[in-house]
Amino acid sequence: MRTHRIALIPGDGIGAEVLPAATAVLHAAGRRHGFTLAYDSFDWSCERYLREGAMMPADGLERIRHHDAILLGAVGWPGVPDHVSLWGLLIPIRRTFRQYVNLRPITVLDGVPGPLRTATADVDLVVVRENVEGEYSEIGGRLNRGFPEEMAVQESVFTRAGVTRVVDYAFDLAARRRGVLTSATKSNGIIHTMPFWDEIVAERARLGVTWSQEHIDALAAKLVLHPERFDVIVASNLFGDILSDLAAAVAGGIGVAPAANLNPEREFPSMFEPVHGSAPDIAGTGVANPVGAIWSAAMMLDHLGHPEAGDEVRAAFRAVLAGTAIRTPDLGGRATTGEFTREVVQRLEPAG
Ligand code: ATP
Ligand code: MG
């Protein structure tokens, strides 16, 4: 039987509540498809930072580089600045392991009410966000603190190799889906990096994929008004970050949204994590929605070479949402994380 070694990082708050839901579902999927998952768990978190002064140990990345994948719950906690959890854990993992694609599927699920008035039954899109360069750089600084001439400068870094590989990934994905790619730009205002991005998108275009570019402001509006018109959206780090949260909200909430940080070449492990944060307001009460984590685990199954198992997991939680009233309070129900998860697991177990 094939065994996949998975690094588990529950993190903070509800991260530790939704990951057991994901592993329970993975176990059931493995039994159906003849594979097992072996986990090593790491307590890297804001809690560890408060105790030991670092989110992870100095040799942390070395310890997980040979795992087949990383499953992460959520990191972040009140009193710990976001840049600590980001630059102390998430960004080093993404960059060192060359996880340059952040993949965020957005699908409206039956039984999950969204905020839109228009019918959105056909919303099924994927945001491909560049995940390791672009606007999120450490280059820049502040001058003249406290004086009237005070200023801040923040540089963006776009490399030909970095843009090309994520754009190619997005074109490939569009070719395997409905063949429509939209590129997010802002070349009318950002006059160096964005025209460079646009040029590379035009160069990498291929037969079989209809592509267009839209300015980020207009694209954001269209994503609210006509989400069903999109198939694959490719965007820089900042624009992709914003669009994927926007699109997740359109689809019915942050609790159900999944994400994958992919190293498509498989030189290093890829990382799978729900979009939501540690939700301190509900942490410890057992009612966190596990769908984002379960869906992220399904994406991990796709990546590990078990796409049929991934499809079954997605079908199972969709069936619970569409066919029963069992759901967590964020979706208007009264179920606990465990009760919802048991329903999903049951649908993956052999009848009898
Ligand atoms: P981050 O940690 O990324 O900064 P955040 O603090 O902006 O995230 P979250 O921690 O995701 O946001 O919480 C935002 C709101 O959504 C909170 O009210 C939280 O309770 C709710 N929420 C987030 N995830 C879930 C979930 N899985 N189930 C139920 N509610 C959730
Ligand atoms: Mg937070």
From TrEMBL:
InterPro entries: ICDH/IPMDH (IPR050501), IsoCit/isopropylmalate_DH_CS (IPR019818), IsoPropMal-DH-like_dom (IPR024084), TTC_DH (IPR011829). SMART domains: Iso_dh. It comes from the Bacteria. Keywords: Manganese, Metal-binding, NAD, Oxidoreductase. It holds the Pfam family Iso_dh. It is an enzyme of class 1 (oxidoreductase). Its cofactor is Mn(2+); Mg(2+). Its EC number is 1.1.1.83. It catalyses: (R)-malate + NAD(+) = pyruvate + CO2 + NADH. Residues 5-344 form the Isopropylmalate dehydrogenase-like domain. Belongs to the isocitrate and isopropylmalate dehydrogenases family. This is D-malate dehydrogenase (decarboxylating).
